[in-house]
Amino acid sequence: MPANLTLDALKAAVASGEIDTVAACLVDMQGRLMGKRFHAQHFLDSAFDETHCCNYLLATDMEMNTVPGYRATSWAAGYGDYVMKPDLATLRRLPWVPGTALVMCDVLDHHTHEPVPHAPRSILKKQVERARAMGFEPMMATELEFFLFEESFSSLFDSGYRQMTAMARHNVDYSIWGTSRDEPIMRDIRCKLWDAGIPIECSKGEADAGQEEVNARYSDAMDTADMHSIIKLGVKQIAQEHGASVTFMAKYDHRRAGSSSHVHQSLWRDGKPAFRDEADAHGMSQVMKHYMAGQLAHAADITYFLAPYVNSYKRFVVGMFAPTKAVWSLDNRTAGFRVCGADTKAVRVECRIGGADLNPYLACAALLAAGLDGIEKEMALEPETTGDIYQAGAVREIPKTLGEAAAALRGSALLRAAFGDEVVEHYAHAAEWEIAEHNRVVTDWERARGFDRA
Ligand code: ADP
């Protein structure tokens, strides 16, 4: 479903007073929407063409620190400007915010107007163009899980996240009754996202107290990544309207389930699924098998883009529906890569490694880079791993720490070829900074363990 506002429709809505504000947004390294809210008339008069932002937006950490050591920008380089170029095909109403529309922007060099290579939308665009040059259209869906809390964002922040009350008090997986206290918020989320041009399929309770999942219909990879970012914004803003809060952390509490963002993927050719072969035992084409073989071969290289923080790795535990092994299996939720819809035209691969904290543009781009390499090299798909894969012996593991994933990223010939050296070094630096920051900090766990016993 395309975004629901054309420039002409925006002009009419501004003239009638229906819309007075346009949020122009880029996507930062963390997958967040950053930008400016324009008076709608000024957007129509000039900003629809381009606007500007400080180039530190693609060189900060989660806390907006000016991280040293990036080649792309620094204090020494003066933290100059980027061009934000609105992609008018993404213009849409934000029905949960009065009088407001939103548009996604590409990030361009201020002087050359060339795409900034480490901008998440540029990275994904490059891989989509590569797939198209091979004759394929990548179709994807990124499911999103999160936890709902009774307290507001500001009260939890002020209390240091110590008194958190999950909206539901027990596991509400698929429970219609168990999620009924969430429903005023979830109904608003489904309906208002739908009215923003995001075709929500469903929401459902998930496997722990207060956990929910929301699914949008699959679309082309860029549209899916844009929808993912806007869904996160909408879920947060709508929860806030209700005086509640949510988290998309991969693992907000080690005693609770983690939150994932599974990525469903298929390639299409001439409007038809290229993953389908009716003659195959499971209806999987050679193209699909090569694509999956590429993702398995490069699983360690791409893990950083599926699990970008120290916390992300705490999700990979046995018996909680998050995978620990990078192998494939038919409809088996213990595998890193699950084949869904076998023997149907919807046959697809679901990568289950990603957490809800992933950046969807980077995750989809990395998965594509690995899968397309498998197709180009006609990689053979290893045999399916079956049964309880948590207990499978010597099979390919998912990296266990951010350090392991960062080292695999830095050393990845695949990603250097697909994304370019400067992009790999930019994100490897982000990972190493995150580790250094984490190493520096004394955690609650250390204090509780050591304070009177050390
Ligand atoms: P699950 O068993 O994971 O709940 P669903 O049937 O709910 O599976 O589908 C999960 C996601 O997969 C949905 O967002 C759906 O739009 C998406 N999906 C369905 N078909 C395809 C396809 N051919 N390619 C990519 N994604 C798809």
Automatic annotation (TrEMBL):
Residues 17-112 form the GS beta-grasp domain. This is L-glutamine synthetase. It holds the Pfam family Gln-synt_C. Keywords: ATP-binding, Ligase, Nitrogen fixation, Nucleotide-binding. It comes from the Bacteria. The keyword Ligase applies. Its cofactor is Mg(2+). Belongs to the glutamine synthetase family. One of its GO terms (molecular function) is glutamine synthetase activity. Residues 120-454 form the GS catalytic domain.
